[in-house]
Write a structure and sequence with these properties.
It contains twelve helices and ten strands. With 323 residues, the chain is α/β, with parallel strands linked by helices. The protein has one domain (13-315): Alpha-Beta Barrel (TIM Barrel), CATH 3.20.20. Helix 8 links the parallel strand 5 (166-171) and strand 6.
Length: 323
């Protein structure tokens, strides 16, 4: 079959428009990459606060480009805020013509600059902070979709690094062979279940053995790339079996674990009720149970939390701030 020159946006036009209305800006020729400014970037430019990644790891939200090189995903997580129904089905990634890392990085930086330009004239904007924001220092490769489906992820990370930027990559762990290759500044694996049965119900996919292999890859990164396992807790679905999570964490031995609440936003509201979003106290309680279950020889401790983002940070003792 001939490769598709671009995504067929005649068929997917409605979804594309919806994503654009939600603030996603497509970059590159073939429109498989996107960038979006977040609430915390806007707050940070106005001097009104920083996101939990700032509190935990020293990232300045106003200098962070939140992007994805692949709007496609191979899972269909119940808690995903994307319109999964459109982008996960019928997309054969081998048919997509992929843009180069150079084009994507240049497109993201240019688009971010355009998106923040409106803040320049605002009386609330701190001029020094705005000048910093025009020169981003960090790329969060985690916006929507699964970044390991982009075939040049390693080169994309290196391209961001060549611009003097640090990188966070968030993966669902379904492509362990890609994890073997890449060395972002910090590598996250989103672990959505304590066992295979729950995984299938939460992610609606069949990649459990690959995810277990990815946990081993995370362990092999020790000393080379900072590693994080993120557990997104959904009340009544996967906020169960802390012993299962502890066992999986023992395989990965990450530098950090983030235990975070599912947030009732975007398209996930069509699939889950508000009650599925746990209170911060419930997240903290679950994080404590996991820490207690981790082998007594390990140094894992709860070291920080952000109540507004309903997230708790567990650390193995590694230095937290990137710089
Ligand atoms: S892996 Fe991430 S992007 Fe993919 S469906 Fe799940 S939450 Fe959404």
């Amino acid at each position: 079959m001939e490769p598709r020159a671009t995504l067929n946006y005649d068929e997917e036009n409605e979804t594309r428009k919806t994503l654009e209305k939600q603030g996603y800006h497509f970059v590159g020729t073939h429109k498989h990459s996107a960038v979006k400014t977040c609430l915390w970037l806007r707050k940070s430019i106005r001097g009104e606060g920083n996101c939990y990644k700032g509190k935990f790891y020293g990232i300045s939200a106003h200098r962070c480009v939140q992007m994805t090189p692949s709007i496609f995903c191979n899972q269909r997580c119940v808690h995903c805020w994307r319109p999964l129904e459109a982008f996960n089905i019928n997309i054969r990634t081998e048919e997509v013509v992929w843009d180069s890392p150079e084009e994507i990085v240049e497109g993201c930086i240019k688009e971010q600059k355009r998106l923040i330009s409106g803040f320049k004239g605002s009386p609330k904007t701190n001029k020094d902070v705005f000048a910093e924001a025009e020169v981003p220092k960090h790329a969060a490769i985690s916006l929507i979709g699964e970044p390991t489906l982009y075939p040049y992820l390693n080169e994309l990370i290196q391209e961001f690094h060549s611009h003097g930027m640090t990188t966070f990559v968030v993966t669902n762990g379904t492509n362990p062979e890609v994890l073997r290759e890449i060395s972002p500044s910090q590598l996250y694996l989103s672990l959505n279940a304590p066992d295979e049965a729950i995984y299938k119900k939460v992610a609606h996919a069949n990649y459990w053995s690959q995810i277990k292999e990815s946990l081993k890859e995370i362990r092999r990164k020790k000393g080379r790339t900072r590693t994080v396992i993120r557990i997104t807790c959904i009340e009544g679905r996967n906020r169960v079996k802390p012993d299962g999570y502890a066992e999986l964490l023992e395989i990965a031995k990450p530098d950090f674990v983030e235990v975070k609440a599912y947030m009732h936003i975007g398209y996930s509201r069509k699939r889950l009720s508000r009650e599925a979003m746990p209170a911060h106290s419930r997240v903290k309680e679950f994080a404590s149970e996991i820490v207690e279950l981790l082998a007594s020889a390990s140094n894992y401790k709860i070291v920080d939390e952000s109540e507004i983002s309903r997230v708790v940070l567990i650390s193995s003792g590694r230095k937290r701030f990137l710089q």
